[in-house]
Every structure is written in structure tokens, then in C-alpha cells.
């Protein structure tokens, strides 16, 4: 499972009248009117630490409002970043325009997914925001120091909900069933995963983007998004799993951000 699946050849130019090299200088409205040739799907990318249950309530609400939604699955064991990228790629449809909605660590994979998938836009939700080019580490140095103190003799970390104090973790969930659903999907991931980094192809962020922050934990990423000219929203007094505790609010805010970048519901 640790090997990378065969890379599909880039097909953006086959699907859209213009390629990424021609996006420069176009307004969002002009860009979307030019490239929006297929039905649009909102593709929710869960953190590899949590699984798809963290996104399902919001995806259901938006589906009821007329959006076509999909949630990526990460059922196979995660050993390396290539495992995560391969699982995301395997879920992405080839016959729809996509708006990626990554949460947390999943944000690191958006640039590589943009290379060979028909990505219209991306809305980052309390997520890692890659730079315009270069590489992005899968964990910042301060977090790595914490994780090195939690690894076992086999090099594995405990499930994410066991990384932190129970008082802090318990407040992230609206009820026991929601927590149980997330914990069933958690994986024990090796420390070496977080010591890795992902490539960031230049030009990936020239498509429309937006950022939704839950509180100020990702304030640096939120400010970076604002500096890129993206619409930004912050839900104050919100924890990292606010999509579980207030799915209606998160769905409404996502809908507003999508409207600001010219994306409308199409099945």
C-alpha cells in the first residue's frame, strides 16, 4: 500500500477550453464562465487522521440544498503521503468539475491534485494552506516535537483523539455517537508520515480559492489566504471539528464563500 499509484496524465487542457497557463489576468467571473463546462461536485477531503465521518454532516446538508457532494474515503492504511494522495485520486471523478474542500492536514494535497484533475476552485477549511510553489511539510516543527514524545516502539502514534487532554478533545464533538463514528475511522499513523513533505507545483493557486477558519488556530493560513486576494471567513469560538458541532453554520458559510468565487450548485 505504500507505493504510489500510476500517475494519470494531465487532462485539464482536454476538458477545458483554456489551460492553467492562460488563467493569468482573468477575473474570477470570466475564468469560471470559460472553464465551467461540466457539472460541478464539491469534493470534501478529510484529514488522514480522522476519516470521512468528520465531513459527512456538512456534505449531506449541502446535498439537500442542491449541491452535488462527495466525501473522499481513506479506508486503506496510511503509511506515507503517497498513500493519502493515491486514495484521494482514486475517489475523484473524471467527468465532473471539482471544487476541493480540504480540512486540516488534507490541505497539503490540493496542489498535487490540481495537476491532473479538473479543479475549478478550492475552499480550505481550518486547513494547511500550501505556498505558491516549492514544498510543504506535513507537520510544523513544533508539532513534530510533540509527536516524537508520543510515538511507540513500533514508530506509530496513538489515534488523534488520544494526542490531547480529554477535556479538550471532548469539547470538539457534539455527542458520543459523533465521536464514536470518527474514532472508528481513525488510523494509527507512523511518525515518519509527519516527517515528510509534499511537492507544491507552481501555479496551483491561480484558480479561485477561499478560506474558512474555525477560530484562530490557523490564523497564519487565514492571513495568507487574504493576502492572495481570496475571500476569508472566521467562525469565532469554534473548535477544529466545528463541521460536526455546527454543520448548518459551516454549510451556510461554505455556500456563501462559494458564491463569492462564482461557484453555484449544479448536479
Helix/strand layout:
Layout: H1 12-15, H2 28-35, E1 40-45, H3 56-64, E2 68-71, H4 81-91, E3 97-104, H5 110-116, E4 119-127, E5 134-137, H6 141-148, H7 166-170, H8 176-185, H9 191-194, E6 197-200, E7 209-214, H10 219-227, E8 232-235, H11 242-245, H12 247-260
Helix pairs in contact: 3-12
Explain how this protein is built:
This protein has 267 residues and is an alpha/beta fold. It has one domain (12-260): 3-Layer(aba) Sandwich (Rossmann fold). The protein has helices spanning 12-15, 28-35, 56-64, 81-91, 110-116, 141-148, 166-170, 176-185, 191-194, 219-227, 242-245, 247-260, and strands at 40-45, 68-71, 97-104, 119-127, 134-137, 197-200, 209-214, 232-235. Strands 2-1-3-4-7-8 form a six-stranded parallel beta sheet, sandwiched between helices. A two-stranded antiparallel sheet has the order 5-6. β7, α10 (219-227) and β8 (232-235) form a beta-alpha-beta unit. α3 (56-64) crosses α12 (247-260). The longest helix has 14 residues, at 247-260. The protein starts with 11 loop residues before the first helix and ends in a 7-residue tail after the last helix.
Tags for this model:
globular; 8 strands; Rossmann fold; two-stranded antiparallel sheet; six-stranded parallel sheet; alpha/beta; 12 helices; 267 residues; disordered N terminus
Amino acid at each position: 500500500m505504500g507505493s504510489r499509484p500510476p500517475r494519470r496524465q494531465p487532462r485539464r487542457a482536454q476538458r477545458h477550453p483554456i489551460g492553467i497557463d492562460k488563467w493569468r489576468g482573468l477575473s474570477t467571473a470570466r475564468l469560471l464562465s470559460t472553464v465551467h463546462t461540466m457539472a460541478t461536485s464539491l469534493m470534501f477531503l478529510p484529514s488522514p487522521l480522522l476519516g470521512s465521518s468528520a465531513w459527512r454532516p456538512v456534505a449531506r446538508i449541502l446535498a439537500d440544498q442542491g449541491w452535488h457532494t462527495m466525501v473522499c474515503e481513506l479506508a486503506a492504511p496510511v503509511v506515507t503521503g503517497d498513500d493519502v494522495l493515491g486514495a484521494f485520486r482514486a475517489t475523484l471523478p473524471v467527468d465532473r468539475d471539482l471544487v476541493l474542500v480540504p480540512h486540516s492536514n488534507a490541505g497539503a494535497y490540493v496542489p498535487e491534485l490540481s495537476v491532473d484533475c479538473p479543479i475549478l476552485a478550492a475552499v480550505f477549511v481550518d486547513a494547511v494552506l500550501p505556498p505558491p510553489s516549492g514544498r510543504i511539510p506535513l507537520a510544523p516543527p513544533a508539532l513534530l516535537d510533540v509527536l516524537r514524545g508520543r510515538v511507540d516502539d513500533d514508530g506509530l502514534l496513538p489515534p488523534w483523539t488520544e494526542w490531547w487532554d480529554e477535556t479538550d478533545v471532548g469539547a470538539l464533538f457534539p455527542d458520543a455517537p459523533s465521536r464514536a463514528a470518527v474514532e472508528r475511522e481513525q488510523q494509527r499513523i507512523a511518525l515518519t508520515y509527519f516527517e515528510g513533505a509534499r511537492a507544491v507545483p507552481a501555479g496551483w493557486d491561480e484558480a479561485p480559492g477561499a478560506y474558512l477558519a474555525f477560530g484562530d488556530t490557523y490564523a497564519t493560513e487565514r492571513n495568507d489566504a487574504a493576502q492572495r486576494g481570496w475571500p476569508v471567513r472566521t467562525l469565532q469560538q469554534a473548535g477544529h471539528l466545528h463541521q460536526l458541532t455546527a454543520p448548518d453554520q459551516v454549510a451556510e458559510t461554505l455556500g456563501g464563500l462559494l458564491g463569492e468565487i462564482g461557484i453555484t450548485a449544479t448536479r
